[in-house]
Amino acid sequence: MPRVMLLVSANLNNIKLLQPQDGTDDGNINYFFRGCGWKTKDRVVVSFNVQEGQGRRVSSNLHRNCQGCGRVGRITLIPGYGTPLTEHNSHEVRLMVFDCNGLLPTDYSFNGGWLAKTTSGTEIHIDLSGNEEDNNGEYMGIVDGIEVAITDLEGKFVPFEV
Fold it and tell me: Do residues 17 and 85 make contact, with C-beta atoms less than 8 angstroms apart?
């Protein structure tokens, strides 16, 4: 089974730390997946809290039949590899490892539930989903009298080898 790593990047202005709300092992990740060349149009949420599978011996966090060919595919989240984005390390930072069997994530969609810590130490809870026309998945604001910004969000999947 191939494993892929989700790498994320962002430009951080007066932000010293950015991570999912519940830390880097937060399993509530929205992403699109592909099976046999077919790609979903809807977001699929994977969570550590969900265990799916056929029978007792197969367990995964996402279990789907490919709508293109009907073949069964599974994805299991592998915790322990992610790190937060920081003011010194915010380009292609490891967020999560996916163990894939028959499905491959292709695009990452930033979602709500992110925690940012400003350079002044204030924690802000933000939504990076881009659902609102005015933020496009970015955050800009004034916190403690200082202009803060999170821009140029990117996520990509790359092969992962232990």
Answer: yes
For the segment 3-29, what is each residue's pLDDT rounded down to a tens digit? 999 999 999 999 999 999 888 888 676
The owner of tokens 């202009």 is 147
Closest C-alpha to 77, from 102, 50, 107: 50
Question: How far apart are alpha carbons 103 and 124 in whole angstroms?
Answer: 35
Contact between 135 and 83 under an 8 Å Cβ cutoff? The reply is no
Question: Do the Cβ atoms of 101 and 1 come closer than 8 Å?
Answer: yes
Return d(Cα 32, Cα 124) in angstroms, integer.
27
Backbone φ, ψ for residue 47 (5° rounding)? -140, 145
CA distances from 23 to 6, 15, 61 (A): 15, 16, 18
Note the pLDDT tens digit of each residue in 123-159. Answer: 999 988 865 444 557 899 999 999 999 999 999 999 9
Buried b (16+ CB within 10 A) or exposed e, 38-77: eebeeebebeeeeeeeeeeeeebbbbbebeeeeeebbbbb
